[in-house]
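> example.struct
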């Protein structure tokens, strides 16, 4: 072979190599994507969008800036088939009328605050009493789940995300201080729905934001979650009274139907004779998670034996509200008109403990000017 032929062969290899690289780079990138479409308007004329996030593996999360709601989350089963594992609605109008907090960010304070009252620095504050006119629930009459957030698309090497921002004004729903809440909802390339919170205030205040997704790993609307198995890394719960307000104590779970340290089917003990199960109509309790030090750790593993889907919950938070969908009774018709019957989904709300504003012994939910509250939760999906 002459020199010329050698040069041609070498060049041909170089070109082929470069084409190969470009192709694999393109393949790597093709699936990662963010698209935005109009989702409708609120009654006061605010435009709302729906973002579709696709990660490198083809998982899909849909997020709207109304209520910071995750409307769909498509993850693979053990055969690689994608299924939507969160309950929700098809239209914005239905989310506007939603009373069950489907997929939303709830705040300023998730869960119940007793009698809608708390005292901070010697001043008593009264919050909206939107639960039977008695307690404050999930942020009040117009909580974070019912407002339009500012949104920005975020692309990084390992995730696609929407960064949502909401300014909750001083006095809103009775809370003191202008509170700026940033929530970044990411779909990461290691198959997690990651939720990062950053909150600041200009006056001393309280807050306890969380994500209120309704999960069913077999696919939303496909049956109850009683055969899902769950592990929760917690030695105790914060027991409640008949109105679901924490008594302020910690109750060890050992020897009770609340012990999920060993993975157990949700339905295995849900109907046992137990005062706490009676008050909650099933599981509707905050778990005081082990190893709380502000770092991210795995606190819960949910497994659906039918589909093989697994959801790990990782969080920096001290608490996990495990709600087994006890108030669902088929009256709510969700996606495709499907009736969401009793316990068709469950919530795993990572946050500080309920009614913390009234229990100084619980980890504090007070935020002061100059401080930035930061918190991360990741729901990571696998299949086995
Ligand atoms: C939370 C509460 C439940 C219920 C649901 C919403 O999980 O703990 O009691 O209010 O939200 O229906």
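> example.seq
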């Amino acid at each position: 072979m002459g020199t010329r032929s050698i040069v041609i062969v070498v060049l041909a290899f170089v070109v082929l190599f470069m084409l190969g690289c470009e192709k694999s780079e393109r393949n790597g990138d093709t699936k990662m994507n963010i698209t935005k479409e109009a989702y409708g308007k609120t009654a006061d004329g605010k435009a709302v969008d729906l973002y579709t996030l696709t990660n490198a593996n083809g998982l899909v999360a849909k997020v709207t800036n109304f209520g910071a709601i995750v409307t769909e989350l498509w993850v693979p089963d053990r055969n690689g088939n994608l299924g939507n594992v969160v309950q929700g609605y098809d239209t914005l109008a239905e989310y506007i009328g939603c009373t069950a907090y489907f997929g939303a960010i709830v705040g300023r304070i998730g869960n119940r605050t007793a009698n809608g009252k708390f005292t901070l620095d010697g001043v008593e504050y009264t919050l909206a009493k939107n639960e039977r006119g008695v307690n404050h629930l999930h942020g009040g009459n117009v909580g974070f789940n019912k407002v339009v957030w500012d949104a920005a698309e975020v692309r990084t090497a390992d995730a696609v995300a929407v960064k949502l921002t909401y300014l909750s004004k001083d006095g809103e729903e009775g809370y003191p201080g202008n509170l700026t809440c940033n929530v970044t909802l990411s779909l990461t390339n290691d198959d997690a729905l990651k939720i990062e919170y950053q909150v600041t205030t200009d006056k001393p205040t309280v807050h306890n934001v969380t994500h209120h997704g309704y999960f069913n790993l077999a696919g939303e609307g496909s049956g109850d979650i009683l055969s899902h198995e769950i592990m929760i890394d917690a030695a105790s719960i914060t027991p409640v009274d008949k109105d679901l307000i924490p008594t302020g104590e910690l109750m060890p779970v050992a020897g009770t139907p609340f012990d999920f340290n060993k993975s157990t089917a949700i339905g295995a003990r849900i109907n046992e004779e137990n005062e706490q199960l009676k008050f909650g109509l099933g599981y509707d309790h905050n778990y005081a998670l082990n190893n709380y030090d502000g770092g991210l750790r795995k606190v819960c593993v949910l497994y659906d034996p039918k589909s093989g889907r697994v959801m790990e919950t990782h969080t920096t938070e001290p608490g996990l509200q495990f709600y087994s969908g006890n108030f669902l009774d088929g009256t709510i018709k969700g996606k495709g008109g499907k009736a969401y019957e009793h316990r068709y989904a469950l919530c795993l709300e990572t946050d500080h403990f309920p009614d913390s504003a009234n229990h100084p012994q619980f980890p504090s939910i007070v935020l002061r000017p100059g401080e930035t509250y930061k918190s991360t939760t990741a729901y990571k999906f696998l299949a086995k």
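> remarks
The longest helix spans residues 3-30.
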